[in-house]
Structure formats: C-alpha cells, structure tokens
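Supplementary Note 3. Input sequence used for the single-chain structure prediction.
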Amino acid sequence: MDTEKTNMILREGFLVKRGHLVHNWKARWFVLMPDKLLYYKYEGGKRDSCQRGKIQLKDCVITSPFLEYENRPLVFKLRTKNKVDHFLEACSREERDDWAADITEAVDKLRVAAGGKVMDEEDQAGSQLHINLSKVLDAMYDVHSGIKMSNHVEQGSTYSNCFSGSAVVDWLVFMQLALTRVEAMTLASALLEEGFLRTVGTRSLEGIRTAGLSEQFMDDSTALYSFSDNLKKRGSVKAETSLSAVELSGKVIKRGILLKQGHRRKNWKVRLFVLRSEPDFLHYYDPTKDDVSPVGGFSLRSCLVSSLDDNGVPTGVKGNIQGNLFKIITHTDTHYFIQAPTHQEKMDWIDAIREHS
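The predicted structure, written as discrete structure tokens, is reproduced below.
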C-alpha cells in the first residue's frame, strides 16, 4: 500500500491555490500529512485520485495572514526549504487560522524530530517596543502598504471607504505591529479611544457600549470602521441602500466550499456558499474570484432541503458523483443539487438551512 495513504491525515478540505506558472487561482482539495501537504483536483463532482501536487513541510515557513493580495484577505503563504512560495486561500478567517495552526504544528514537530527547537513568540518578535500610535496610524493610512478601504454592507446599507474590524486585526498582525490577534485588538482599541479611528454603522458602535476599555474594538468582519473625520480623507464614508445590499446585509451564519450542479449544462462547479440570517439568504460565489459579487443566490423563505441517498444517482443529477448529496427546493420551485465534501458537512448545512428557512 502507498505509504502516503497509510500516514495519518491531520486535516483535509478545500483551499484556493495560486498557480506557479500562470498566476490564476484554482480551488483544490488539500490533505495535510505529518510531513507534507498534498493537493488534488475535483473533476466534475468527484475528487481526482491523481495527486496534482505536493508541498514538503520540512523547514517550511508560514506567513498568516498574508495581505499582499488586494481583495484576498484570507490568504496564507507557505515558503518551502527551497524558497518556493505557495499562496493558499481559505473560505473564512477561522478556517485560515485553523489551517495555519495545524501546518505550523506539523512543521514544529518535524523541526523537533530533527533535533531543532520550536521558536517561541519572543524569538520571532524580538524585544517588544513601545508603540507610537501616530506612527501606527501613518502606516495604516499609507496609500501603498496601508489598510485597504472598500465597500461594506450592514443592515441594508452599503458603506463606502471603510474597513472591517477583522481586516484591521489581520493587517496589524501581518505588519508585525502586533504579535497576536488579542494584542492587535488592544492596539486598535487604543486607536479608537484616541479618536484616530471611528465606528461606522451600528455593529461597531455596539462594541464600544458593551466591552471593556481595552476591548472596544471588535475582531469581527461585520463590525465596520473608518479613519477619523479630522484626517484628510482618501474618500468620505457614504451609505447607499439597494435591493442587493438588503440581501447581503444579514449576519453570516455559515461559510463553506461545496459543489453545485449547474442548471443548464448540469456540470459540477466548486462554489463558496454563504448563509446569512435576517434576512435569510443563501448566496454562492466563484471562490477563484472574490466573495463580494455573488454568482447567484436565493431567499431561504419556505425552502425545502433534503438529504439524498448516495446509493445510485437521483433523478435530475448527472456527472461523476462523489456522494454526500442534498437538494434545496426554493419557494419558486427551483431545484439546487449540492454535494458536500463529507457526510458531517452535509448534515451541518442541512441543519443550518432548515433553521433559517
């Protein structure tokens, strides 16, 4: 038996990978082993048994978050012993951090097994310096390397020229102005307290009212902030309301990559699904592009969701089926056939959709 198959699988799931020769992004199925990271392609609705690539973990260096790709805040970078860089993107901050933690642990174990030592935070960061808030603000405001401002949606309104709390925390950690996310929250809270940053919308304002002084800033993708009004603005914060903004304004309940069968060609495509509540909508995106503009979506009101038997191919389903199928019928009688990577993920999605339909 192949030794790679007998090794213990530490973690597996979809990640979006940047190509080496052609720098496009493609969704791949990754399998983390104790000493390597393997990746495969999904052909139609089934994982290709032919391995597409391998990343040796010995002496790898991981950078997470890696924020040099605009509009891709969920990327982390793996640099191999031979100085080859691999850029991988997860579907949520939690998943990105979990992948980074598991890979880091595997790399550390390999280093210890080879007689080395695991670098602690003090080794990596050096001595802690007193942070000048004005210098942090200048760095954040830098047009080239500062935090990126964009449009965000909250409660039916689209706010321009602002950023989320989790994006600020990511940026502070990436720029090594804070060692951990907790440190970054404390630093951002100080910027907020000094009036360098201001809240946008109601979610971030809620954080100020309910949290302690050092935790007023929220590490949350739905809490919005911008630079203070007394700064020279790169752009003013404006709110506009639209039908699509209302659809996308609900609280994100669940995110994940699933396989969806097309309505016309009946081919299977990898899609990032996002379930929101109040209003209850399920949107799906092309994970190789962005999670800003949905490819499609529908209201969960009066939806019916059901698990499909993996024995045989159900009516209406075509292609090479891996399994873990379920079906959603919308209130307009549109049928969606979806595959989850695992049985547990299928049941989790069914439960979440039923709760909000």
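The domain at 3-118 is CATH 2.30.29.30 (PH-domain like). Residues 93-113 form the longest helix (21 residues).
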